[in-house]
Amino acid sequence: MSRRGARVLVTVFPAASHLYPVVPTAWALRAAGHEVRLAVPPSFRPVAVRTGLPVVQVGRDADTGAAWRGFAPPADPDEAAADRAARTVAMFGSVAEAAAEDLTALARRWADVVVFDPRAYAGPLAAALAGRPAVRFLYGVDHTYAQRSREEPLLEPLWRRWGPDTVDPAGSLTLDPCPDALQTDTPPGSRAVRYVPFNGASRVPVPLHAPADVPRVCVTWGTSSGASAGHLEPLLRVLAALAPLHCETVVLVAGDQRGLLGDVPPGVQVLESVPLHAVLPACDLVVHQGGAGTTMTAAACGTPQLVVPAKGDQLVHAGRVVAAGVGRRIPASELSVPAVRTAVTEMLQDGGLRSAAADVARENRGRPSPAAAAEVLAGLIA
After folding, report:
1. Phi, psi (5° rounding) for residue 9?
2. Each residue of 357-378: pLDDT tens digit?
3. HEC profile for 30-52?
4. pLDDT tier for residue 208 given thresholds of 50, 70 and 90
5. Which of 164, 202, 337, 344 is deepest in the core (most CB within 10 A)?
6. Fold match between 7-195+367-379 and 206-365?
7. Burial class (CB in 10 A: 0-12, 13-18, 19+), 163
C-alpha cells in the first residue's frame, strides 16, 4: 500500500438496506486515513450523502420495476423459481448496466479496491475490467451465494457485453457481518466482521431507555415495504392483535410514511424516523416483515423476532431466524389477528427465545470490528 493510503470505491444496489451495513466499515477506513468514495446513481445520491461519506454520482437511474411487470408466478414450483430468478437477475442487472461504464472508468482512474454488495453486479464487473481487487460486503444472510447455481448462468450475458474473460460475482473476498447462527453457506475464505447497525443521524427517544412495567413490543415494517406497497395494512393488523394484550407497543415508521398508519389504537407510541438500534435494546420482542436491516439489527440487539415474510429474501431471513431459535414466523399469506396474538403471547413467555437471542448478540459482539475489516481491505493492496 502506498503512503497516501488506500482508495476504496464502494458501490451498492440503490437501497438503504444494501448501503447501511457497509457504512461503519467505510468510516473505519476513513478514520484509518484511507480514502472512500460511494458511487451511486442519481436518485440515490440524497440517501448516500446522509451517511457523511464522499459521494460520486455514476451512470443513470434504472427502471427496476420493468423486470417485474406482468409477473404471474407459474403454478409449477420449479418453473416459478426459475422465472423469479430470471426476473431478479434482470432487475439487478439493469442497475449494473446503467452504472458499469462510469464505474469502470472511476475504478481505473482512482480506485485501489472495489467494495460491492452481493447485488451490485457492476462492482465485480468494474473491478475485473480495471484489474482491481473486488470485495463483496454482505448485508445479511448470504442467500445470493446459495442461489449461485441458478443465477450465475443468467449473469453471463452481462459479462459478455462488457468483455472481461471472467467475472466472479463472489469477488476476491467476502466480508460477512451476519452472525453464524443466522448465516448459510458463504464463499471459502470469507472473513467475519461485526454487524454495527447504522440508520443515519436522528433523534433518540430517551424515555424508551427506562424499563417498562409490562413487556414492550416493537412493530416495524422497515423503510421500503410501505413505500413500495403504498400501504401498511400488515402492520395495522399486528397492532389490532396487540391492542388487548398486557404489553406496551411501540411503532417505528419512516417519517414520510406516517400518513399510511392513520389512527392507531390508544396507548400505542409512534416514533418517526428513529434508529431501530436505539429502540430494540429496550424491547422484549420485535414484529417485522423480514427485511435484512431489521433482521440483522434485532440479532445484534439480542431481541427475539416474530417475522411476517411476504417475498424474496424476507422468506430466507424468516427461515434463518427460526433455525437459530431466536424467533418465529407467520407467512404473510397467513397473517391474522388471532395468529399474531397467540404467537406474541407465547413468545413473551418463552425464556429460550430470549436466551438464544442474547447468545446471537454476544457472538456478534465478539466478531472482528469494522476497524479490523478496514485493515483487511487495506491489506489487499500491494
Report:
1. -100, 120
2. 999 999 999 999 999 999 999 8
3. HHCCCEEEEEECHHHHHHHHCCC
4. low
5. 344
6. yes
7. exposed
For residues 161 and 93, the answer to whether their CB atoms sit within 8 Å is no
Nearest to 105 by CA among 58, 43, 63, 35: 58
Q: Where are the domains of the chain?
A: 7-195+367-379, 206-365
Report the pLDDT value the prediction gives residue 211, as an integer from 0 to 100.
61
Residue 88 has pLDDT above 80, yes or no: yes
Q: What is the pLDDT of residue 1?
A: 45
Tell me phi and psi for residue 135, to 5 degrees: -115, 120
Whether residue 155 contacts residue 89, with contact meaning beta carbons closer than 8 Å, is answered with: yes
pLDDT of residue 265: 87
Per-residue pLDDT tens digits for 154-194: 999 999 999 877 899 999 999 999 999 999 999 999 999 99
- The domain 7-195+367-379 is classified under which CATH number: 3.40.50.880, 3.40.50.2000, 3.40.190.10, 3.40.50.12710? 3.40.50.2000
Q: Are 254 and 227 in contact (CB under 8 A)?
A: yes
Question: Which three cell numbers, joined as nine digits, stand for 335?
Answer: 397473517
Tell me if residue 66 falls in helix, strand or coil.
helix
Q: Indicate the helix (H) or strand (E) that contains 370.
A: helix 370-379
Contact 241, 341 (CB under 8 A): yes
- 84-to-50, 203, 289, 342 alpha-carbon distances in Å: 33, 39, 20, 33
Q: Which CATH class is domain 206-365?
A: alpha beta
| Residue pair 170/185 in contact by the 8 Å Cβ criterion | no
Residue 284: which residues within 8 A CB-CB, separation 6 or more?
Answer: 215, 216, 217, 247, 303, 304, 348, 354
For cell 406497497, what's the residue?
229
